[in-house]
Amino acid sequence: MDETTKQKVILSGIQPSGVLTIGHLAGALKNWVDLQNDFRCYYMIADLHSITLRQVPAELRQRTIETAALFIAAGINPETSTLFVQSQVPEHAELAWVLSTYTGFGELSRMTQFKDKSEKHPENINAGLFTYPVLMAADILLYQADLVPVGDDQKQHLELTRNLAQRFNHYYSETFKVPEPYISKIGSRIMSLQEPTTKMSKSDPNMNASIFLSDSNEVIVNKIKRAVTDSDALIKYDEANKPGVSNLMTLYHLATGRSFAEIENEFEGKGYGDFKLAVGISVANWIAPLRDNYFEILKDKKRLQDILTQGAEQARRVARKTLDKVYKKVGFVRF
Ligand code: TRP
User: Fold this and answer.
1) How far is the CA of 180 from the centre of ligand 1 (A)?
2) From ligand 1's centre to the CA of 91, what distance in Å?
3) Which domain holds residue 274?
4) Looking at ligand 1, which atom is closest to the CA of residue 149?
5) Would you say 238 and 246 are in contact if contact means Cβ atoms under 8 Å apart?
6) Residues 81 and 213 grouped into a single domain
7) Is there a domain that residue 129 lies in?
8) Do both 170 and 21 map to the same domain?
9) Do residue 97 and residue 146 come from a single domain?
10) What is the pLDDT along the chain (335 residues), one digit of tens a residue?
């Protein structure tokens, strides 16, 4: 990279509300690792977002540390990327408040994730769940991010972020970079092994539906053996008609680098038993080094704490600059 070109900025985050799955590795972490070479990256553990659903405090704390360990095990380099916990950078909550006064009630009412989550948790439709996208906008705008790697389900939130940035810039003067979404291609959506038309989720109550990044090789092979397919006994990529087989092919592609055409050839005339075993073994081989690394990293709590403390300090320096500008523009007294 040419030292004189200003590096473009990436920001992304994952909530620490469950053990991460192979879906996170394929859809987010793998990209995050690749992007580190070309961008100035900020990777955040979004614990403020997690409390919009009720959490067990000790578990949230534990998951936050585990998520950090997993980021590092997956290849996030804390020397070159800033790895931090959202609640350790108070500027996120501060900017979210200001932005919320520029966000319409109607705008937030249209967010599909809010509607989905309200239906799932009718007993706890809190104001934080409603203003969740504003906090996410603050996360992104504080770092003047150029690009934001997100899954499909977050696109609407990113659209709102862009609108808020433009609205604020227009009302005052240029303050925020207007970010672009960075949607990855293949494998960005790993589906449930048990219900392959829905996304694999860390909070699925059916343990066989998700492959967790902490699963042993044996567990991985068994879960894939039990994966729901169909009755045609044909290994062919067809998301609409063969979602289960297509999902396993995506996993095999990610684990081996083989194309769908190569995979179809390889298993021509073979049954689902052979196919699933091959997928299971290759996925286990793919995950194993990451998992072993993860358990090693988790042992050294002190090192993890140091990394997160330094990450939060780096993040705050950048976030504070943006927030100072915002406070000045809206008319708060600064001494
Ligand atoms: N809302 C995102 C999710 O659940 C996580 C997140 C929080 C995020 N803040 C972010 C993602 C900022 C990208 C940028 O997946």
Assistant:
1) 14
2) 16
3) 207-296
4) 13
5) yes
6) no
7) yes
8) yes
9) yes
10) 444 457 999 999 999 977 889 988 988 898 999 999 999 999 999 999 999 999 999 999 999 999 999 999 999 999 999 999 999 999 999 999 999 999 999 999 999 999 999 999 999 999 999 999 999 999 999 999 999 998 888 999 999 999 999 999 999 999 999 999 997 665 568 999 999 999 998 888 999 999 999 999 999 999 999 999 999 989 999 999 999 999 999 999 999 999 999 999 999 999 999 999 999 999 999 999 999 999 999 999 999 999 999 999 999 999 999 999 999 999 999 98
Contacts of 226 (CB under 8 A, 6+ apart): 193, 194, 208
**Whether 162 and 13 share a structural domain:** yes
Nearest atom of ligand 1 to the alpha carbon of 151: 15
Cα of 290 from ligand 1 centre, angstroms: 23
* 151 in Cβ contact with 27 (< 8 Å): yes
Total domains, the chain:
2
Which residue, judged by its Cα, is nearest atom 9 of ligand 1? Answer: 136
Ligand 1 is surrounded, with C-beta below 6 A, by 11-15, 46, 49, 136, 139-140, 148, 150, 154
Same domain, 102 and 177: yes
Note whether residue 194 is domain-resident: no
